[in-house]
Amino acid sequence: MPSIKDVQSPPIKTISSREVYRNPWTRVREDVIERENGTRGIYGVMDKDPACIVIPLEQTPEGDFLWLVRQYRYTVGDTFFELPQGGWETAEVDPEELARGELREETGLLVDRMTHLTDLWIAYGAMRQIHHVYLAEGLTHGETERDPEEQDMTVHRVPVSEFEAMLLDGRVMDNCTASAWGVYRVWRDRRDVVREA
């Protein structure tokens, strides 16, 4: 994964950094920065531990289906469908174990095959959090184990064609869900080209 160390000369330099807020899920820091032209400013950064997003895909003779969760998102005051996702509030975590765990906790689904598709930064204009993107196949049902703040969450089996319509009609507005699905479509198309070659 590319990092700041790969940049020859970063255009912004950190002069100082101080943490201004912390809770079990989030840390907020305020950095004094200096740009290439010598001007200084303040950069507010939210630091969060690694997270994952899972694409639970069920392929059947009747068609392809996704398992989505639906929950209220306080920050925007509305309820939406999205792919299962989350983190464990720890920096040291095995990404696949995290993905399997989050999927089971939120949906009760157990996974036979996990495929790591890529890693994405979430909202990196203001936040530092990596999102591990996984495809989950070979699904069986188990019990959920949701966090207290997820008690309103419901689980839905949705045809892929319906899910893609939901991306356009406002029922899915989570950019992480849309990004993960786009990555999966690119991965799937490239895999299919290789298979046909």
UniProtKB/TrEMBL annotation:
Keyword annotations of the record: Hydrolase
UniProt-listed SUPFAM superfamilies: Nudix
Highest taxon of the lineage: Bacteria
GO molecular function: hydrolase activity
Catalytic activity: GDP-alpha-D-mannose + H2O = alpha-D-mannose 1-phosphate + GMP + 2 H(+)
Cofactor(s) the protein requires to work: Mg(2+)
Cited Pfam families: NUDIX
Protein name: GDP-mannose pyrophosphatase
